[in-house]
Amino acid sequence: QVHLVESGGGLVQPGGSLRLSCAASGIIFRATTMGWYRQVPGKQRELVARITGIGNTNYADSVKGRFTISRDNAKNTVYLQMNSLKPEDTAVYYCNARLLTDEWGQGTQVTVSS
Fold first, then answer.
1. Sign, Cα dihedral of 47, 67, 104, 102
2. pLDDT tens digit string along 61-104?
């Protein structure tokens, strides 16, 4: 059974930083493409960043240069380092495992506000 558990969300001021973590179980983590998505009420869930098992990454244009996705295959964990946060980054952030079907974590709230 796939289990994804996010942590690290919270309230931060504009310009601040947060690091999200997602611990995975029930999958062959090192072979799985992992991603971070975000969603605000009334809008579709959107891709923030993705990383393949061998470390290739891609990012949404809106976060390039500010966010960094990484993974630790020994810990079955994927991270999202978010710097220079903006109010428009406020959303629920979801961890994703790309398997035969998409698997999702429960989400963690990130709020950027002064």
1. positive
2. 999 999 999 999 999 999 999 999 999 999 999 999 999 999 99
Burial of 16: CB neighbours in 10 Å, binned 0-12, 13-18, 19+? middle
Buried b (16+ CB within 10 A) or exposed e, 99-108: eeeebbbebb
Only one residue has tokens 């629920």, namely 92
DSSP state at residue 69: E
Residue whose entry in the numeric block shows the structure tokens 């061998």: 54
What span, in angstroms and rounded, lies between the C-alpha atoms of 23 and 62? 25
Amino acid at 85: L
